[in-house]
Amino acid sequence: MKKKVLAIMMATALMVVPVGATEISNGFYPHMGKVTEVIKNGNNYAITFSDGVGRTWSWIDLNGDWLVDDYVAVIMWDKGTPKYVYDDEVISAKYVGYAELFD
Q1: What is d(CA 52, CA 8) in angstroms, rounded to the nearest whole number?
Q2: DSSP-derived 3-state class of residue 64
Q3: How many helices, marked H, and strands, marked E, lie in the chain?
Q4: Torsion angle of alpha carbons 78, 83, 86, 87, nearest 10°?
Q5: Contact 85, 103 (CB under 8 A)
Q6: What's the CA gap between 51 and 86, in Å, rounded?
Q7: pLDDT tens digits, one per residue of 14-63
Q8: pTM of the predicted model as reported, rounded to 2 decimal places
């Protein structure tokens, strides 16, 4: 009985997981991280975030609402080098929340 219930639960979980949600599509892929630095430079802001494995990424934003420890969801572009991530570029960034929301 336990095996049957477990099998049903696993099958149900597989049906609701979006297939290919994180696959690269035409060189673009989703990524996320935590903002580690915000530097004002004239009318622009240099925003830096760190991902889950410690790599850092930056982009220039006109919006000065970013704070250190904010979470960010980004769309990245692999610049035609899918096996080399260190030249990838942030194309779009969206605010996800801040650390205290998840405590």
Answers
A1: 32
A2: coil
A3: 1, 5
A4: -40
A5: no
A6: 12
A7: 333 344 445 568 999 999 999 999 999 999 999 999 999 999 999 999 98
A8: 0.73
